[in-house]
Write a structure and sequence with these properties.
heterodimer, A: mainly alpha, 88% helix, B: 358 residues, Cytochrome Bc1 Complex, Chain C, two-stranded antiparallel ribbon
Chain lengths: 102, 358
C-alpha cells in the first residue's frame, strides 16, 4: 500500500515537475514562432531597403586592412612632404634658384 | 647618357608643342602671400579636389545607372549589391558632394569675412557665387536619381517652391519637372541636368574663376593692404603645392574613412501614387532654407506667406551676389557692419538647420 502511495506521489511529482517544463516548451515554441515571423518580416523589409556593407568576412577584412594601410601611407607621405617643405623653404630663403638664374 | 638624351629630346618635343616650360616658369614665379589668414587659401583647392573625385566616381556610376522609372532604383540597388565595391564608389560620390558643398560654403564665408572680394576682385566673387549655385544644383538633381520614396517626396517639395514666385513661378516648376507633377520625365530631366547641362556650366565658370584668380593673384589681409605692409610670400611651385598636398592627403583619408564606415542606404523604389512618407527632409545644405519656409505663416496680411518667404530669400541671394559692390568701403563703419552680418548669417543658418533636425 505504502509502495503504491509512493509511486503515485512520485508520478504526481514528476507531472508537477514536467508540467512547467511542458508549458515552458509551449511558450518557447511560441517565442520561436514569433521570432521566425519577425525574421521573415525583417527580411521582407530588408529586401526593400538596401543597407550597404561588406558581403562577407573576406571583403570586410580587406576593407579594414585597406583603411589601416591608407592611414599608414598618408602619415608616411605627410612626414616626407614635411621634410620636402622644409627643404624647399630653405632653398627659397637662401635664394638658391635666384642665384642659379644669375 | 643615351637615355638622358632621349628624355631631353622628348621634353623639348612636348615643350615645342605645348609650351610646358612657360607654364612651369609661370608657376614658379607665381607667389602666394603668407599671413595669419593663409589657411583659408587651402579651401579653394579642397573644393577642386572633391570636384575631381566627383567627376571620377560619377563616370564610374554612370556605367551602371539607368535613368528610367522602372530601372533607376533597381540599377542603383544592383550597383550596391552585385558590382564589386559598387557601394563604396556610390558612398564616396555621395560624401564627396557633401564635403564639396561644405567647403564651398566655408570658402565663400571666409572671403566674406576677410573681405577678399574687394576691388578688383568683384567678378571673382560673382563667379564664385554662381559656382556655389551650380554646385547646389548638382546636389539637388543628384538627390532624385536613386528614385526612392524620400528623394521623390523631397523633389516634389523642392520643385514646388518656385511656384510661389510671381509671374514666372509656375513656368519654372514646369521646366524643372518636365510637366505638372514629378514623374519619370522629371527623373530623365534631372539626369540630363546632372550629367550634361550642369557640368558644362561648372567647367565654364571654373575656367573663368581660375583665370581671374591667376590674373589678379591672391588677396592680402585688409589691414596689411591699408598699411602697405610687405607680406611674406612663397612660390606656388613647389612650396605651396607641397603644403596643399598635405591638406589633400588628410581630406582624402577622412573622405575614404567616412565613405567606408557610413555609406548611404537605398530605400525601396518610389511609388508615384503612394502618400508622402513622414519626415521628408532635403539634404543638409538645404535645411536652413527649408526651415525658413516652414516658419513663415500661411498668410501675411493678404499675401501668401510662401511668396513673401521666397521673395525675401531671393532678395538675400541678390544682395549676396552683389556684395562686393555694396561693401565698397570695407574699412569704414559700413564695412564693419557687413562683416557683422556675415557672423549673424552663419549663426542664423546653423540655428535654422539644427531647428529643422529637431
Amino acid at each position: 500500500m505504502m509502495w503504491k502511495m509512493k509511486r503515485l506521489l512520485a508520478f504526481f511529482l514528476l507531472i508537477l515537475l514536467l508540467f512547467p517544463l511542458f508549458l515552458l516548451k509551449l511558450n518557447f515554441a511560441q517565442e520561436v514562432m514569433e521570432e521566425e515571423q519577425n525574421k521573415i518580416t525583417q527580411a521582407e523589409e530588408n529586401a526593400e531597403k538596401i543597407v550597404p556593407s561588406p558581403k562577407d568576412i573576406k571583403e570586410s577584412t580587406g576593407i579594414y586592412v585597406f583603411v589601416a594601410w591608407m592611414w599608414i601611407a598618408i602619415i608616411v607621405l605627410i612626414y616626407i612632404l614635411r621634410l620636402k617643405i622644409k627643404e624647399v623653404d630653405r632653398l627659397f630663403y637662401i635664394r638658391f634658384f635666384s642665384a642659379k638664374k644669375k | 647618357m643615351n637615355l638622358l638624351g632621349k628624355k631631353e629630346r622628348a621634353q623639348s618635343w612636348f615643350d615645342e608643342r605645348f609650351g610646358i616650360s612657360g607654364i612651369v616658369k609661370f608657376l614658379r614665379e607665381k607667389k602666394i602671400p603668407q599671413h595669419k589668414h593663409s589657411l583659408w587659401y587651402y579651401t579653394g583647392s579642397a573644393i577642386m579636389l572633391f570636384f575631381v573625385i566627383q567627376v571620377i566616381t560619377g563616370f564610374m556610376l554612370i556605367f551602371y545607372y539607368n535613368p528610367t522609372l522602372a530601372e533607376a532604383n533597381k540599377s542603383v540597388g544592383r550597383l550596391m549589391t552585385e558590382i564589386p565595391m559598387g557601394w563604396i564608389i556610390r558612398s564616396i560620390h555621395s560624401w564627396s558632394s557633401s564635403f564639396m558643398i561644405a567647403f564651398a560654403f566655408i570658402h565663400l564665408l571666409s572671403i566674406w569675412i576677410t573681405k577678399a572680394y574687394r576691388r578688383p576682385r568683384e567678378l571673382t566673387w560673382m563667379s564664385g557665387v554662381f559656382l556655389l549655385g551650380v554646385t547646389l544644383a548638382f546636389g539637388f538633381t543628384g538627390y532624385l536619381l536613386p528614385w526612392d520614396d524620400l528623394s521623390l517626396s523631397a523633389t516634389k517639395v523642392g520643385t514646388d517652391i518656385p511656384r510661389s514666385i510671381p509671374i514666372v513661378g509656375v513656368w519654372v516648376t514646369k521646366l524643372l519637372r518636365g510637366g505638372e507633377d514629378v514623374t519619370g520625365d522629371t527623373l530623365t530631366r534631372f539626369f540630363g541636368f546632372h550629367v550634361c547641362i550642369l557640368p558644362v556650366f561648372i567647367f565654364i565658370l571654373l575656367a573663368v574663376h581660375v583665370y581671374l584668380i591667376q590674373k589678379l593673384g591672391m588677396s592680402l589681409p585688409l589691414a596689411a593692404e591699408r598699411r602697405k605692409e610687405k607680406v611674406k610670400e612663397l612660390p606656388f611651385w613647389p612650396n605651396f603645392v607641397y603644403r596643399e598636398s598635405v591638406v589633400w592627403l588628410i581630406l582624402l583619408g577622412i573622405l575614404f574613412t567616412v565613405a567606408i564606415f557610413l555609406p548611404p542606404s537605398l530605400d525601396k523604389s518610389a511609388d508615384l501614387m503612394a502618400p508622402a512618407p513622414e519626415g521628408i527632409r532635403p539634404e543638409w545644405y538645404f535645411l536652413f532654407l527649408f526651415q525658413i519656409l516652414k516658419i513663415f505663416p500661411a498668410k501675411i496680411l493678404f499675401i501668401n506667406g510662401d511668396t513673401v518667404a521666397i521673395l525675401l530669400i531671393l532678395l538675400a541671394f541678390i544682395l549676396f551676389f552683389f556684395l562686393p559692390l555694396l561693401d565698397n568701403k570695407p574699412s569704414e563703419k559700413k564695412g564693419k557692419f557687413i562683416t557683422f552680418l556675415a557672423y549673424v548669417s552663419i549663426v542664423f543658418a546653423v540655428v535654422m538647420t539644427v531647428w529643422s533636425l529637431l
